[in-house]
Amino acid sequence: MKLFQNKKSNLFLAFLFLVLSIIGFMVKLPSAFRHYDKELHSLFYFLAAAFLNVLFAKKRFTRHILIFAFLYLLGMSIEYAQEYSNQFFRKRIHGRYDKEDILSNLKGLIAFSVLWVVYVGVTVFIKRPTKHNEADNSQ
Fold first, then answer.
1. Ranges of each domain in the chain
2. Mean pLDDT of the chain
3. Cβ proximity of 6 and 47 under 8 Å
4. pTM, whole model, 2 decimals?
C-alpha cells in the first residue's frame, strides 16, 4: 500500500494539521465543551502523536521520542501564546496559561507512547525469526 509513503505529502499534511491545531487552540472553546477541556487536551495529543507516528516514525524509537518532545513543547508554547495573546490584543480571546492543560497534554502523549511501545514490541517479537524457522529455511 502506497499510503503515507510520499515525504512531501506527509510534510504537507503535518504542516496543515499543525497550523489548524494552533488556530484551534488559540480560539476559545464553545461553552458546550468547556467542561471537558482536560479530556479534550489528552485526546488531541493522543491523536496528534498517533498521526505523526504513522506519518514519520513507523517503528523507529528515536523518531517517536522526537515526536513526543515536539508535541510536548508545542503544547507548552501554545499555552504561553494564549496568555500572551490576551495581553497583546488587550482583549480576552482565550483563557489563561494553565499548567493542568500541559499535564493533560502529557497524559495523552504518555498514553499513546505506552500503546505504541506495546504495539512495536509485539510486532517485533512476532516477526523475529525463531530457531525452529531458521532450521526449516536452511534445509
1. 37-123
2. 83
3. no
4. 0.77
